[in-house]
Amino acid sequence: MYYGIDMGGSKIELAVFDAQLTRLWQKRVPTPRDDYTTLLAALVALVQEADAVVGGGRVGIGVPGLIKADGTLFSANVPAASGRRVQDDLARLLERGVRIDNDANCFALSEAWDDEFRAYPSVLGLILGTGVGGGLVFNGKVFSGRNGVAGEVGHVRLPVDARAILGDVPPVACGCGQIDCIEGYLSGRGFERLYALAGGQTLTAPAIMARYRAGEAAAVAHFTRYADLLAACLGNLLTLLDPHLVVIGGGLSNVDELYPALAARLPAHLLPGCVPPRIEKARYGDAGGARGAACLNLLD
Ligand SMILES: [Zn+2]
Questions:
Q1: Above 90 in pLDDT, residue 200?
Q2: What's the pTM value of the predicted model, to 2 decimals?
Q3: 2-108+286-296 carries CATH number 3.30.420.40
Q4: How far is the CA of 150 from the centre of ligand 1 (A)?
Q5: 2-108+286-296 and 119-281: same fold?
Q6: Three-state secondary structure along 177-210?
Q7: How many angstroms separate the alpha carbon of residue 176 from the centre of ligand 1?
Q8: Which of 5, 29, 90, 205 has the fewest other C-beta atoms within 10 Å?
Q9: Could you list the residue ranges that cross the membrane (predicted)?
Q10: Ligand 1 centroid to residue 91 C-alpha, Å
């Protein structure tokens, strides 16, 4: 059996899968946010409960944050675990190997192991949500890089095309310390900010898209600008990575108009003769975190 744990800022989910990735059992508990010993105890209790139900399994855990090269976790969402060696501590307490990765990589891995998508040797998972994140999966395994930040596409900076597309909008200071990371423009918040800056009101992304569908001129111009910028940014990533499949998750992945808009725009951003990859909406949504964590143990 394969246990996937999705540790979020408010809840921890453990799901048990068989080798065909059929989910057999699942449980959610609140995340102890402030005390590390309590957090570890909650994780151990979940695994022991799963053991009692299914008789044991290999453990993978997805965490919000960065697993640093020295094995410690940096996580703003789960302060109790930040600076801790979660993987080592869990492995010791559970007396079994534990694999760990960040939640964006687990998202990408879950999609890459979809029954249909697993035929693709390389998959870029792109999250257009509260922030912009991503993960790279090559031949069924996450590629995390030397510092664990491979696939953190939200902190790639705006491409040179951006100023012509965006016009005179003020720069965005990113939480990472840089200016004008693409997250500031392509995230759900960025989408809403660009609409407001262009003279629209402060609205949620779904409300803006409702106006787009009703033919509001400001919303139509806004969506065109956003799609142009997303295509320019994604075009750079495609030239770097040339993935066979791109899977888009996060709230903006539900904007169905994005997919034909990208297909129309991407060829102009690729090298001559290159064909854009298949681009699909994520299939696992909120269930992808635990599923992806379970997939960490599928290959040795
Ligand atoms: Zn940044």
A1: no
A2: 0.94
A3: yes
A4: 14
A5: yes
A6: CCECECHHHHCHHHHHHHHHHCCCCCCCHHHHHH
A7: 4
A8: 29
A9: none
A10: 32
